[in-house]
Design brief:
It is a single chain. The chain is an alpha+beta fold. The protein has a single domain, classed as Dehydroquinate synthase-like - alpha domain (Dehydroquinate synthase-like, alpha domain). The protein is 41% helix and 14% strand. It contains 4 helices and 5 strands. The strands form 2 sheets. Strands 1-2-5 form a 3-stranded antiparallel beta sheet, with no helix packed on it. The protein is globular and about 40 Å long.
């Protein structure tokens, strides 16, 4: 959730600070807030191509616009995200 919110903020579809708020709540709950280091970024990105939201060679993601709301209502709740941005956020 934190990484998806970071992507959403970088795309300009999420309110600034959304990722930090989600991270804070997850930390308080004792839940993970980052990608496990033993899971390579390339493996994660490759796996996204198998998702039901992958269309025409592009992967689409369900991204928050703020706490309690999702972006992409006009596009079926999924937004295309360039692999390079996903790599940057996951690294």
């Amino acid at each position: 959730m934190v990484l998806e919110a970071r992507i959403a903020e970088r795309l300009g579809v999420a309110e600034s600070g959304t990722a930090a708020r989600i991270e804070g709540v997850l930390r308080q709950a004792g839940l993970p807030v980052s990608r496990p280091r033993e899971l390579p970024v390339d493996s994660v990105v490759d796996a996204t191509r198998l998702d039901k939201k992958a269309r025409g060679g592009r992967v689409e993601y369900a991204l928050p616009s703020r706490i309690g709301a999702m972006a992409g209502e006009e596009s079926g709740w999924a937004l295309p995200v360039d692999d390079q941005l996903v790599h940057e956020v996951l690294a």
